[in-house]
Amino acid sequence: MTRSFLLNDSVCKTFTSKCKRLFHPGPIFGMGIVIFLTFVGLWVHFSTLIYLWKSFACVNLFFCCSLSVFILRSYALSAWYGPGFVMLGWKPKDPKDQAYLQYCRVCDGYKAPRSHHCKTCGRCVLKMDHHCPWINTCVGYLNHSHFLNFVISAPIGCLYCCTLCAYRIYYVITRSFALFRFGYDYKVLFSFYELIILVIGLGLAFGVVLAVGGLGYCQIRGILRNKTAIEDWIMTKAQDRRDSDPTLKPMVYPYDLGWKNNLQQVLSFSGNPIGDGYVWPLRPGCGTYDLTIEQLQQKNLKSKTAVLFRIGRPYSGIILPVTFGCRTFCCPPCSGESRIAVAIGDVVSVTRAHKRWYYGQILSPSHSDDVNSPKVPVKGWFPRACVSATNYTSREDKHKQN
């Protein structure tokens, strides 16, 4: 199943396209850190451990090399395979099911269950969890297992590297102090540059333990519930809707099969995914399109409550705009979503706000209907100062006026 799946339009089929994804600043920097910490660990091994504990040195060397190879393998395969994309122009087999699915104008097809469009990748991603700049692609159906192997093994390897670096620093400092005390040359044990490298290695390894370890916790927590980060957000909004309107039918997450079955959906040493990425096993009593129907209802509510603003002040899309005041500069939205450039006269459909910022989609002033909007929606954050508080009308009020 996996071998035939890799040959279709869901992944980068050419060797060149995969190399472009892998040889990118994100993957190069990430793998560079792993290689650097591996050499630091080997240096500690050959400079200290091999002379102190010869029996342990062989075990340490095997463990260090094996773990480093496994981390690099998992990291590289996460970027090499990619998440798996929904085929361009995809449609469900039964035309009646199209009413339960979202349509992607960019990919010119319907979004399969559990799939979402990634603006950075430019495609709809199967079982999309999030876009990771460190592997230069999304985490999804095809590479989720490799990514999980990485976020589990990397903190373990870096924690081990922290221990080796800390021991080497302790060793050279205590031995050097003893030599200096008895009048010997303490520089024979180490050089100043070695100490700098050890401190840098210790800091990098500890930083990876905190950052990747936290990400690993979130990934394991989501996998045990068979719920991606996006699906967790959808279910949170679904619960908020039912808290505000008790008449709505309770929403049951359809993909939670129990933690053992959920774990088997992703975790495997080989990294091969289960299924085809389009059809997923369901919880008893749940339907195939329960979650997609909830998404459509949330989109409809979001469209009704959106507010249209006309831009009165241009904004270039810079991340930290100095000219819009200290509060706007110091309180940007803390999210991975992009900024958008707006010009005077643009009409923007605003759906969210964060202090001095608005999030919305640019609409053409003369064609503000969804049907006539651009094929690639321009969405993002822009300063609140770009609009006037008196110059707006909601879509719902606009339809009533017409």
From TrEMBL:
* Membrane topology note: Multi-pass membrane protein
Question: Which molecular function term from Gene Ontology is one that the record holds?
Answer: protein-cysteine S-palmitoyltransferase activity
Q: Which GO terms describe its cellular component?
A: membrane
TM spans (from-to) = 28-46, 52-72, 147-170, 190-217
Q: What's one Pfam family here? A: DHHC
Domain notes for this protein: The DHHC domain is required for palmitoyltransferase activity.
Q: Which family does it belong to?
A: Belongs to the DHHC palmitoyltransferase family.
Q: Which PANTHER family match?
A: PALMITOYLTRANSFERASE ZDHHC16
Q: What is this protein's name?
A: Palmitoyltransferase
